[in-house]
Design a protein that fits this description.
Helix 2 links the parallel strand 1 and strand 2. The chain is globular, with a radius of gyration of 26 Å. The two termini are about 40 Å apart. The longest helix is centred in the middle third of the chain and has 12 residues. The chain is an alpha/beta fold. It folds into two domains: about 220 residues; about 70 residues, no CATH class. The chain has a six-stranded mixed beta sheet with strand order 2-1-3-4-7-8, with helices on both faces. About 25% of the residues lie in helices and about 10% in strands. The N terminus is likely disordered. The chain is built from eleven helices and ten strands.
């Protein structure tokens, strides 16, 4: 059975990336490099960009730089893609360098979370940046995804903003922020982006780009997998969905205290008001009288026949930001789910 198998005949839920009809700008061909200025756009014969990518990294046309890959993926679909790398975030002028994008802004903080990129674990400012020419630090702001999104909105407020990258992916729900030592709300709310794409979002991005090219309102694009957005009150797209409370998936329980890795076993036991039987010599070869064997109890929720809602039309309702902010148990529960 070494014969090759044509998987194109298999049923698949995801649409192949190259099966979309190319956008009309495909006729311009492949650019040697994604333009970063008006002069470079004119050399390519472009009067505008369909998509403008904003990144906290330098632009290097290499697969190790995420925005370069995303730019080429969109270009292969026929879109004219420009890129603004490490712009001056103190005003919106740097974000107007390529003009107004026809379809949307694509925003990312870069290959690294901007706070990790700029600060050490001791909250001291780093002196270098591996993703900046000359290894120079300080070329991107704190919480770059939020700052860049706000500047894009300031430059052209009616253009959709699509947020992505590792900073957006890890902060898409309420999350603990080490730098401020508190729970922050979703970056979707703080950045005021229209849509957040998390994870390896090539398929989602291509679908969103083609739907925006067909003049679909960005507010109506709420059915793409791997996206996060703010649900508007009275949104008709919310009809027909079934909500499952998160406590039906995971039961909130106590939060165990962190164990100090520098303590010995006896010191850990002493800190908890106990003694270490291995070191005191107690209990050797015997079993404590209060020890009970593990018993497996059938889950009562699985008894009998249950009618479950359709999996593809079901969502899990997590605790609200206000709840997880003030309750460590619910915060741990929300992150497990």
């Amino acid at each position: 059975m070494n014969a090759p198998i044509d998987v194109s005949f298999f049923a698949r839920s995801a649409k192949p990336l190259m099966s979309y009809r190319p956008y009309w700008a495909k006729r311009f061909g492949t650019a040697p490099f994604l333009p970063m200025s008006r002069a470079e756009m004119e050399q390519l014969g472009w009067d505008s960009c369909d998509v403008i990518l904003v990144t906290g990294d330098a632009y290097v046309d290499h697969p190790s730089f995420g925005m370069a890959v995303i730019g080429r993926v969109l270009e292969a679909q026929g879109f004219r893609v420009g890129i603004i790398a490490q712009p001056d975030w103190t005003s919106a002028e740097a974000f107007k360098a390529l003009g107004k994008p026809n379809l949307f802004w694509g925003v990312t903080a870069g290959n690294m979370d901007s706070m990790i990129n700029r600060y050490t674990a001791d909250r001291k400012i780093r002196s270098d940046d591996a993703y900046t020419p000359g290894d120079v630090g300080g070329k991107r702001p704190d919480r770059a995804a939020i700052v860049y999104s706000q500047r894009c909105r300031e430059a052209y407020k009616d253009t959709p903003i699509i947020l992505g990258g590792i900073e957006g992916s890890l902060r898409r729900i309420a999350h603990y922020d080490y730098w401020s030592d508190k729970v922050r709300r979703s970056i979707v709310v703080d950045s005021k982006c229209d849509l957040l794409l998390y994870g390896n979002a090539e398929r989602a991005l291509v679908e969103v780009a083609h739907r925006l090219a067909r003049r679909e309102p960005v507010d109506s694009i709420t059915d793409v997998r791997g996206t996060a957005f703010v649900r508007r009150p009275g949104d008709p797209s919310a009809e027909g969905w079934f909500e499952i409370d998160s406590t039906a998936v995971d039961t909130p329980g106590r939060v165990d205290t962190h164990i100090n890795p520098y303590q010995t076993t006896s010191e850990q036991a002493q800190a908890q008001g106990q003694s270490c039987a291995m070191e005191t010599g107690e209990g050797k070869g015997s079993v404590a009288s209060d020890t009970k064997p593990v018993q497996f109890v059938p889950n009562p929720a699985l008894r009998g026949h249950r009618t479950l809602p359709p999996r593809d039309r079901s969502v899990i309702r997590l605790p609200s930001y206000e709840q997880v902010k003030s309750d460590p148990v619910l915060y741990a529960h929300a992150n497990r789910v």
